[in-house]
Write a structure and sequence with these properties.
This protein has 330 residues and is of the alpha/beta class. It has 15 helices and 10 strands. A 5-stranded mixed sheet has the order 2-1-3-10-4, with helices on both faces. A 5-stranded mixed sheet has the order 7-6-8-5-9. Helix 2 packs across helix 12.
């Protein structure tokens, strides 16, 4: 009698263990749900993020990401600062400007290390030295864009004579104005405007402001310091998955392009394919080579802040030590 009862207990226990194994996935901890707000509408400059989603890098970190298009970096930083999105992808200048205006923001990774603003022109314009070759040219400037402010600063840096320059507004029409020869040179983001022209078959060239000495951090991953304080492990896991996607795209641009096209089949494929490798180039810098993808320095942030104040895009300094961190790259 005792033997039978003991055997029955063993069978019951074994069944319980087996059942608990079957139920384990059901009671597993739920993924952290977060919103990632981009700087602009979906484009192939975001392909590494789509690759990270496709390969499950966020899922592997226990994160469920709601990827949302943006309406400009200035809007994105407000949403993150107001905690309407846990994470954002926005330009470093807008992060600084937002912080100076009282928004709580911190960049956890500077993805695009170089300034994409450039002089854009048809190659037939034969512009080699902007200190002399811009004279006599009609220059299209986007007055409502940050590139317009950078142009004003560049004129001073290069000591260009305003009397010898012909400038016209080109907001929202830069590409069309270059294509139709209404302007000889445009000031814009080269991976947007120049490559749109190249995608239509135009032979275009560009000279980066970065190469003329106007070095600026560009698009970065950011969050709210309150989230860092409340859930530092979430911020670390998210940053790790985010950068893993970027590194995977650098290692295999074709895979990133295909992931983006799969998610956005109606996009201009020629333009998207031209843009992605140019964007990936901007992730590199001597600092990144030494310290890894996404790393930034206080000196470079201070330099950016000084330039923004000189361009009258910021009134006063903000505490740089609170605006960026490399802690989540480790």
């Amino acid at each position: 009698m005792w033997t039978e009862r003991r055997s029955l207990l063993k069978l019951t226990a074994a069944a319980g263990i087996a059942l608990s194994g079957l139920l384990a996935p059901v009671v597993a901890q739920a993924a952290d749900k977060v919103k990632l707000r981009l700087d602009w509408v979906f484009g192939s400059e975001h392909a590494p993020i789509f690759l990270a989603l496709e390969r499950g890098y966020f899922r592997d970190e226990g994160i469920d990401v709601d990827l949302l298009p943006g309406e400009g970096s200035s809007v994105t930083v407000k949403l993150v600062g107001n905690r309407d999105a846990e994470f954002g992808y926005a330009t470093a200048d807008q992060i600084l400007i937002g912080a100076q205006r009282g928004l709580d923001l911190v960049a956890t990774a500077v993805v695009l290390q170089q300034n994409p603003t450039a002089f854009i022109f048809k190659t037939s314009q034969n512009i080699k030295d902007v200190k002399t070759d811009l004279y006599g040219k009609t220059i299209g400037v986007q007055l409502k864009s940050n590139t317009g402010r950078q142009w004003e600063a560049m004129k001073k840096d290069l000591k260009l004579d305003p009397a010898k320059l012909r400038e016209v507004p080109a907001d929202g029409a830069l590409v069309a104005m270059i294509a139709s020869n209404r302007i000889d040179v445009g000031v814009g983001f080269y991976f947007n405007d120049a490559l749109k022209l190249r995608a239509t078959g135009e032979d275009v060239s560009w000279i980066l402001f970065e190469d003329l000495g106007m070095k600026m951090y560009s698009t970065s991953l950011l969050t709210n310091p309150a989230l860092v304080k409340e859930k530092p492990d979430l911020v670390k896991r998210f940053t790790r998955a985010f950068l893993k996607g970027w590194q995977a795209a650098i290692d295999d641009p074709k895979a990133a392009y295909e992931a983006f096209i799969k998610a956005n089949p109606s996009t201009d494929k020629v333009y998207a394919e031209l843009k992605l490798p140019e964007v990936l180039k901007l992730t590199q810098s001597p600092d990144v080579k030494q310290n890894g993808l996404g790393h930034s320095t206080a000196a470079a942030w201070e330099s950016l802040q000084a330039q923004l104040i000189a361009m009258e895009m910021m009134k006063d300094k903000t505490d740089i030590s609170k605006v960026f961190t490399n802690d989540f790259l480790k």
